[in-house]
From TrEMBL:
Its EC number is 1.13.11.71. Binds 1 Fe(2+) ion per subunit. It is an enzyme of class 1 (oxidoreductase). The lineage of its organism: Eukaryota, Metazoa, Chordata, Craniata, Vertebrata. It is found in: Mitochondrion. GO terms for biological process: carotene catabolic process; retinal metabolic process. The keyword Transferase does not apply. The keyword Metal-binding applies. This is Carotenoid-cleaving dioxygenase, mitochondrial. One of its GO terms (cellular component) is mitochondrion. Its cofactor is Fe(2+). Fe cation binds at H246, H306, H377, H593. GO terms for molecular function: beta,beta-carotene-9',10'-cleaving oxygenase activity; beta-carotene 15,15'-dioxygenase activity; carotenoid dioxygenase activity; metal ion binding.
Length: 599
């Protein structure tokens, strides 16, 4: 088969997609085997004082250079991936091409927005769309698909009135025109009620499945039928005003999450522990408790966060300079603004790492700082030689939340290119946080004893620790748009030392490739097919596997083309070659997150 030369390297057709060959191979004969990217990474260390961002008497290292924005042109219009679709409530048979392993029995559950207007009123932000639940059921090599809209109060109420009645992240609902003039006036002074439009992820508590967003409401769902069950309010069990859609789990089912609380004295970050067992049949979050509360740097401007890290013994929280201005949020409705208007990137603040003992709830006294970055998804965290090693996807500019307006995502031509090029690329980075920092440690000393990473943690005069990251990639990752939606072999590796992680490359506003990254060699393998956009990869291990990457990667691949089919992709996680795909004759929007439920 012929190879294809495109920006960033040489691509070879492979299993229906493309495998990226190293740019160093351009002068060699093209061979038929899959080749991985391999470029040694420079590991120079540069110390930057937390009080000054000026480098003196040192040359900039490629390892620490800010790689932020792109300059791409000619992006494909993906507007159809952000349009409303109809649900498919009854299972339909897919067309399987290739081979679906017969041991792969269970359901891939996906979540994301699927309806973007009611009547003449339209949502403004991608995150506002009504939750559409997807299910790919796999059994003995046969795959069926179904989808249902979550019957949330938001969806039902909006449908009944044929207008947007419940405010969402980026859309403020207008007062009911049927109210009296006085009633409409008073409604402007009321806080918008939190939405239960749980469109972000599936989560599991005490063996039950829920869909979640980041408000205080979740919805229990039946993973077999996708039927919507009861609404569960976090604030009835613990004093929080919401929780993330990315909890962590212990092998026994104990879950940990984080949520903010807001009161007359400001705000706090709270680490929550949920027990693994039910006390009775109707139990939901009973027994959940706040393990630790952390004060923000500014009480009225807490950080926004989407996820957190967890090792065997510690929870790690990155307090980043994406700030929630509580005064603006409280007055947003009166000012005619959505809640999103109160969240902004403020890079004058540094990023701070908080480390909490998850068994005792003790907040460690160490003060760890780094230069400002934004993160949405953690990769993993583990402990080694008295340190917590934290891996996460980082952006050097955190303004992307505001950029994902639907009007931007639906642009074409130069307008679309400009939007893409205005968003900072995300890259995987490693930080090292030493657990024991005492007064006897000399100022200016790197406290990391780990020989396998160039990440440093240097003690400052004031006793704080300044952390510099290691890039978990070679510069070739820049050519595929960085990486987001990271996943690992969770059941085996979460909280433990690991080698591989998987994610989406972002040469577009949504993922346009799948990537396997090796943390030791920084080699990567890529799957890509022109005109198709894969979702977050989900790792499913082979039964009784011995190798970390023995399993498959599942990803729902969508396309804006009306003449091509969406499909469920199955990759061999070790070789990253395609095993098979299950084509679905219905259009799907691009979604967010999901899980695999084994049968």
């Amino acid at each position: 088969m012929a190879a294809l030369l495109v920006r960033g390297g040489l691509w070879r057709p492979r299993g229906g997609g493309l495998v990226l060959l190293s740019k160093s191979l351009l002068t060699r004969p093209v061979v038929a085997c899959t080749t991985t990217l391999d470029r040694p990474t420079l590991a120079h260390q540069i110390h930057i004082s937390p009080r000054s961002y000026v480098l003196k008497d040192v040359l900039p290292s490629p390892q620490q250079e800010l790689v932020t924005f792109s300059n791409r042109k000619g992006l494909q219009c993906i507007s159809p991936l952000m349009r409303s679709v109809e649900e498919t409530p009854q299972p339909i048979l897919t067309k399987v091409k290739g081979h679906i392993p017969k041991w792969l029995n269970g359901s891939l559950l996906r979540n994301g927005p699927g309806k973007f207007e009611f009547g003449e009123e339209k949502f403004n932000h991608w995150f506002d769309g009504m939750a559409l639940l997807h299910q790919f059921q796999l059994e003995n090599g046969i795959v069926t698909y179904r989808s249902k809209f979550l019957q949330s109060d938001s969806y039902v109420t909006n449908s009944r009135h044929n207008r947007i009645v419940v405010s969402e992240f980026g859309t403020l609902a207008m007062p009911d025109p049927c109210k009296s003039i006085f009633g409409r006036f008073i409604s402007w002074f009321e806080m918008p009620r939190p939405t239960d439009n749980s469109s972000v992820n599936y989560v599991v508590y005490k063996g039950d499945y829920y869909v979640s967003t980041e408000t205080n409401f979740m919805r229990k769902v039946d993973p077999e039928t996708l039927e919507t069950k009861e609404k569960v309010d976090w604030s009835k069990f613990v004093v929080v005003n919401g929780a993330t859609a990315h909890p962590h789990y212990e092998p026994d089912g104990t879950a940990y999450n984080m949520g903010n609380s807001y009161g007359k004295h400001g705000s706090s970050y709270n680490i929550i522990r949920i027990p693994p067992q039910k006390s009775n049949r109707d139990d939901t979050l009973q027994g959940a408790k706040v393990l630790c509360s952390i004060a923000p740097a500014e009480k009225m401007k807490p950080s926004y966060y989407h996820s957190f890290g967890m090792s065997e013994n510690y929870v790690v929280f990155a307090e980043q300079p994406i700030k929630i201005n509580l005064c603006r949020v409280i007055t947003s409705k009166f000012l005619g603004k959505p809640i999103a208007d109160g969240i902004n990137w403020e890079p004058q603040y540094k990023t701070r790492f908080h480390v909490v003992n998850k068994h005792t709830g003790e907040l460690l006294p160490g003060q760890f700082y780094s230069r400002p970055f934004a993160t949405f998804h953690h990769i993993n965290a583990f402990e080694d030689q008295g340190c917590v090693v934290l891996d996460l996807c980082c952006q050097d500019d955190g303004g992307s939340l505001q950029t994902y307006q639907l009007q931007n995502l639906r642009k074409a031509g130069e307008g679309l290119d400009q939007i893409y090029n205005s968003i900072a690329r995300a890259f995987p980075r490693r930080f090292v946080l030493p657990l024991n920092v005492d007064s006897s440690v000399p100022v200016g000393q790197n406290l990391s004893p780990l020989s396998y990473t160039s990440a440093s943690a240097v003690k400052e005069v004031d006793g704080t620790v300044w952390c510099m990251h290691e890039n978990l990639h070679s510069e070739d990752l820049e050519e595929v748009g960085g990486m987001e939606f990271p996943q690992i072999n969770y059941s085996r590796c979460n909280g433990r030392k690991y080698r591989f992680f998987y994610g989406c490359g972002f040469r577009h506003l949504v993922g346009d490739s799948l990537i396997k990254m090796d943390t030791e060699t920084k080699k990567m393998k890529i799957w890509q097919e022109d005109g198709f956009y894969p979702s977050e990869p989900v790792f499913v291990p082979v039964p009784k596997a011995t190798a970390e990457d023995s399993g498959v990667i599942l990803s729902v691949v969508v396309t804006p083309s009306q003449n091509q089919n969406t499909f469920l992709l199955v990759l061999d996680a070790e070789t990253f070659s395609e095993l098979g795909r299950a084509e679905v004759p219905v259009q799907m929007p691009y979604g967010f997150h999901g899980i695999f439920v084994p049968r």
